[in-house]
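Aim 2 progress update. The chain analyzed this quarter is reproduced below.
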Amino acid sequence: MNVLVFLIPLALALGISALFAFLWSLKGGQYEDAEGAAWRILSDEDLPK
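Predicted C-alpha cells:
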C-alpha cells in the first residue's frame, strides 16, 4: 500500500509531461502537413535521367 504513495504521483507526472509534449508538438506545427510525406514518396524527381 505504501508503494501507491510513489506510483500515483509518478503516473500523474508522466501523464502531464506527455500532454505537455503533445501540446508542444502541436504548437510547433508537427502535424501541419500530414499528407505531404505520403505524396513525396510517390514523386520521381530524384530519379537519374
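The chain has a mean pLDDT of 88. Helices lie at 4-27, 36-40. These observations will guide the mutagenesis experiments scheduled for the next reporting period.
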